[in-house]
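Subject: complex prediction, re-run

Hi both,

The earlier run crashed halfway through, so I resubmitted it with identical inputs.
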Amino acid sequence: MGVSDLVVRAYNVGFGDAVLVSVPELTEDGHEETRHVLIDVGNLLAGDGNDDEVFTGVVREVADRTGGTVDLYVMTHEHLDHVQGLLAAHRAGVGLAARHAWLTGSAHPDYYATHPEAEKRRRVAALALEDAHRIVQAAPDPWLDMMVRNNSAGLPPGALGLRTSDYVDHLRDLAPRERTHYVDRTTDLQGKHPFTEATVRILAPEEDTSTYYGRALDGPALTAAGAAEAASGGPATPALSVPPVGVEPGAFFDLQASRRTGTRRRIMEIDKANNNTSIVFQLEWRGWRLLFAGDAELKSWKRMHAHGLQPVHFVKISHHGSHNGTYDELFDELMPAQSPDGRERHALVSTHDGDWDSVPDAEGTLALYSSRCLLHDTRSVAHGASLEVTFAGGPDVLGPSDRR
Amino acid sequence: MADVVAEVELLVQDGSVSLAGPGVTAGAPEKETKELTLPGDGNDRFLDGPATRRFAVVDFDPATGAPLPPPATFVPFRSNPRSGRYVAGHGDASAGDLAINAFGTVFQTVRMFEGPDALGRRVQWAFGGEQLLVVPRAGEWANAFYDRGTRSLQFFSFDGATGARVHTALSRDVVAHECGHALLDAVVPSLYDSSTPQSVAIHEAVADLVAVVMALDSRRLREAVLARSDNSLAGESAFSSIAEEFGMARPSADGMSRRALRELRNVDTVHTLADARPHVLSTLLSAIFYDCLSGMFATRFEAEQSTDASGGSTAAAANKALGTAHIIFRRLLLRGIDYLPPGELSFADVGRATLAADRAVRPDADAGAALLRQRERLAAQFVERGLVATAADLLSPRPADLSVPPDELRRIHGSDWAAYEYVTRHRATMGIPRDVAFTVLPRVDSTKVVGPRRDGVAPVQRELILKVAWNVTEDAAGATGRTRVVPTGATVTLDWDTGECLAMVSSDVTGHQHRTERDTFLLELEQEGLLEQDDESGVAVRGDEDAGLRNSHRLLHLAGWWG
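This time it finished cleanly. Structure:
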């Protein structure tokens, strides 16, 4: 009987992630069984990178490959571009189940009741999100609308049609309750995964996610009391589109721009903090070390560095190839100039053009990876199709390949 | 042409603090009617908003943040339609109430600051434009701030610890304080980017003291405080306590309840506040000046009683004494501010500039005993609090060789070339190091009242104030080879009529102690992750070649840093 290869299969779902890792393992009786790990399925809710129909085909193919049940589903963090797909496919009649599920620790329904510092930050974030939601209701702002929806786990029920938390709720029931685990760096993984041969290690997130929020969140908010008055009172005063008489136009527009920037900065801070709650895990199999980084940003990478980063043979590049998702100063720890064991190295970017000005960061982040390893890019395959990166399970470990 | 007037009703203190006493809230805050005055020939009018050429309210919807039409209407008088009164909407703390109170207090603060009993000149805003925006409903936050970048004063509202609503736009102290930041930024813009903790704290201390001067501006408040304090400023009062309502509504960082945001009476020294952040450190400087005010009042009260000039009433004597002390204190404080050199500054520099400005009007040799005692008391405070070793360290020279003939003075005022030539000629006297480039700032023409009116005429002194700035570079803590640019400078004042040098004040922040404090400050900010890398409006290190700070003034309204 031949020895199979480990295959990382990345789907082009637009601006989002959908990664299936198929890990062949030898059982005690010498047979080979493949464990399938599905990491996130979702895409952005605005712009060209958004297309819910793509999930139907992708999830159907995953179901075909896995018999309708993956061995482990990993929801890295609560962003739409990572959680949306399975519920969308389910609504289209394509279901998928899991034997084990990992959800990021802070998604636990009781997380904030047991983590007071994180709860303080969550409350501030929720206010900022509600402000932003009101702002986009008052005046269209596609970017802000997209960001609010992406981070809508923090919005109260009813604020939007379907919120991020509704998609997360679907994922809570993917695996049996006793095999659904909310994990962080400190979680003891014994009995919480399907592997018998491969080993897994969680590098992030930290248990206390308050560490991921910066001071940018501590800015002003809109007045909730004012919102209540506006809702219950008479017709609202129409907003001005031009400066009042006597007000210098340049100063007026600069002030407005600054306030918008302040709102955006706070929403970005929330977005970053949510990215940093990503489950980042390392999978070791027959000498290969693969790192799946979710959307971890700089603060998370700093923590991971403090607890020990190791050279790897494969990286699922964080945050769709953005500059924020890779910590340049720590890059040598992941990808030293020379492969320590001579094996070929790979990186995968799951991304899309035209949604963000700076994502992917082609000249910075992607060039950095390209300088050290073979870069695989979901943009190189058709929408809904997948690329494969294989890692040899037998003696020819020096020559994995990229198949499309 | 007759002046243009707008009548407004302004709160005497805070939205919910009565004249009953500090720490006491009451349902009916006191208001007083004030007349805001524009010069008749100033090509300016009061508009809805309120708005004028130099100040304008911009209102935002509290729920959506959208800009709204002017919340207060200017209603012209029938007899004289260029003048009138501002009318707010209905209800307590309406948008119009907040707008009128914030605008009116800003207007009066600037009038006071620029008046002949203070700077005696109009200042140019540091942001370069003519109009300062006033945002009375900036949002939900226990904060208020001046922001150079948006040319605005922003006032927020919040629910206090007891649930009571606090509008910072309704606090005379808060509004005057933030306006004080804008005014100090106009006079010493280099303080906005300070790297020295005392420099950052100077902004806060001066803003608090501007609030004190504006509180003293209210006759009703003066009378109420004196009546309650048995004619003394020695205890806690509405003058020594800054932002009572705000402080009561919001416990301090250590969770203790308090009666005001800050208290300017203390016995702290530079040693007891060695590790203090700028807001707390500022109270060291403001306490020195508050002590000076107390001394001025006590001296004049004693004199009023002894001469019986107030008709025998102790209360009348106290009121007259406090009214006089208010004027003298305002002149002393604000003219000292005008003499501050450009660049980084220490508290001792403020002491030197204050005494130099006072001596420029009346040298020690011509001063009476009371004035000499006043100067000695101020200097003694700087010594007792460890800011200088001896009172002599606060003396500034009046180098005779800096004097010029009157016609040359006018050339220096009007011509950059003449000003640079003058400074080049005297660079050694001014302490400008060899081979260092310098910048001469636009010269200032200031005419100040320098004594009580005699026969209806106030004596004045006209001065030319020249400031020159240069940089020194020092090693900075942190990475090997990291350096820091420290802006420094000098102020030279010449008598406009005679060309005589009245004062020269140089900054003194390049010593070991201040450098160590800059290093400690920088490392603390770095460790707390407060230095922004990609935000031009945030506090940041200036660059790879310069570990000095940019926008450090913003620390004064960052959560956790403002006390």
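The radius of gyration of chain B is 23 Å.

- K.
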